[in-house]
Amino acid sequence: MKPAPGKYAANGRTGAQRQTAGRPGFGIIKCVSAIWTTHTSDAAGTQAFAARIAPLLAAGDVLWLSGDLGSGKTTFTQGLGRALGIGQPIVSPTFVLIREYAGRLPLYHIDLYRLDNPREALNLGLRDYLDGDGVCVIEWAERFDSHGDLPGLHIHIEPQGDSGRRLDCGASGARAETLLAQITAN
Ligand SMILES: Nc1ncnc2c1ncn2[C@@H]1O[C@H](COP(=O)(O)OP(=O)(O)O)[C@@H](O)[C@H]1O
Ligand SMILES: [Mg+2]
């Protein structure tokens, strides 16, 4: 599938982006939308939140996950995958860059951790997945210098104590705005 020209090019900043860019815990994500925050108290809670998102997803949706090692990005993806009807275990794609799963929609689980230049990955095939027939979940979105400008739902996971997590959610682009509105309405 051919991507729309310039779809993933960095956009100019809007006033709203400037307002959200400096928010605590979310400073590196420059989403166009306001940030909506939820908290979970354990891994099952994070998976349950992901499972709420899964039925809302359609082909071509992209979820950009950020947060330190062990924050819960893969745990979130496991909850999402299960709710998409994927029976096999979802394991971290760190060493293979991408794992594909068949569910209600194909799930492309991508990990940018080991890439020296993630932006180059956009030119080398990642773009085809983003514009593809399934849902993309991308760990280590912060490896992009301006990932908040990339269309999709952005979720930053911030540990709070041992097993608490704060999940800051923002949207970039009209489709992600719709998704976020549905998530916050639930
Ligand atoms: N509220 C929580 N949400 C997500 N994971 C949690 C939570 N509390 C504890 N954990 C644990 O933290 C670890 C997160 O690991 P993982 O999902 O692999 O992180 P990442 O992919 O961000 O490096 C798991 O062992 C998980 O069980
Ligand atoms: Mg991981």
Q: What report would you give on this structure?
A:
The protein is an alpha/beta fold and 186 residues long. The chain has one domain (29-185): Rossmann fold (3-Layer(aba) Sandwich). The protein has helices at residues 15-21, 43-53, 73-83, 118-130, 174-185, and strands at 36-40, 62-66, 98-102, 106-111, 135-139, 152-160, 164-172. A seven-stranded mixed beta sheet has the order 1-7-6-2-5-4-3. Helix 2 (43-53) crosses helix 3 (73-83). The protein is globular, with a radius of gyration of 15 Å. 42% of the residues are buried. Magnesium ion binds at residues 73-74, 92, 139. The site of adenosine-5'-diphosphate has 17 residues, from helix 2 and helix 3.
The radius of gyration computed from the alpha-carbon positions, rounded to a whole number of angstroms, is 15 Å
The distinct ligands, each listed once, are:
adenosine-5'-diphosphate, magnesium ion
Give the strand content: 15-25%
Low-pLDDT parts are: 1-28
What is the architecture at the second tier of CATH? 3-Layer(aba) Sandwich
Describe the protein's topology:
Blueprint: H1 15-21, E1 36-40, H2 43-53, E2 62-66, H3 73-83, E3 98-102, E4 106-111, H4 118-130, E5 135-139, E6 152-160, E7 164-172, H5 174-185
Parallel strand pairs: 2-5, 2-6, 4-5
Antiparallel strand pairs: 1-7, 3-4, 6-7
Helix pairs in contact: 2-3
The site of magnesium ion has 4 residues, from helix 3.
Keyword list:
24% strand, seven-stranded mixed beta sheet, Rossmann fold, 186 residues, binds magnesium ion, 29% helix, binds adenosine-5'-diphosphate, globular, disordered N terminus, single chain, alpha/beta
